[in-house]
């Protein structure tokens, strides 16, 4: 059995009381520590999201690229969103038997299908946004 108890909130009250009596230097140090902790959390969340994507969706996308003779490009942008782009000369056909690929497409936050005027290739771009914290 696993149990996760988040009922003890005494630390929050203690912090609230402490902030009322901080010196200027202590307040600056506390703010710097909070910013550093938040930045570290953001980086960890982005890394965890990319690792999850690599384990859950990347194998499916690679299989689909191999099946369709496409080029697959994966990148993570400055907002930590993962962008998967499939490029093919023949277009894409996701059939009823390709349930895993249906799942990947359904999970995408943004889907773009393009054929640029100066290109003979079709691009299928799927963008997977870093999940936002619900507070």
TrEMBL record:
Protein name: Uncharacterized protein
Provenance organism: Brotaphodocola catenula
């Amino acid at each position: 059995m696993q149990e996760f108890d988040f009922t003890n909130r005494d630390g929050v009250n203690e912090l609230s009381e402490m902030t009322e009596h901080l010196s200027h230097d202590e307040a600056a140090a506390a703010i710097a520590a909070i910013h550093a902790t938040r930045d570290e959390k953001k980086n960890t969340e982005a890394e965890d999201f990319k690792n999850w994507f690599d384990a859950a969706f990347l194998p499916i996308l690679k299989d689909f690229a191999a099946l369709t003779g496409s080029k697959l490009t994966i990148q993570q942008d400055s907002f930590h969103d993962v962008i998967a782009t499939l490029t093919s000369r023949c277009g894409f056909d996701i059939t009823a038997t390709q349930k895993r690929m249906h799942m990947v497409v359904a999970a995408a936050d943004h889907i773009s299908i393009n054929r640029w005027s100066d290109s003979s290739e079709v691009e299928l771009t799927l963008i997977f946004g870093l999940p936002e914290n619900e507070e």
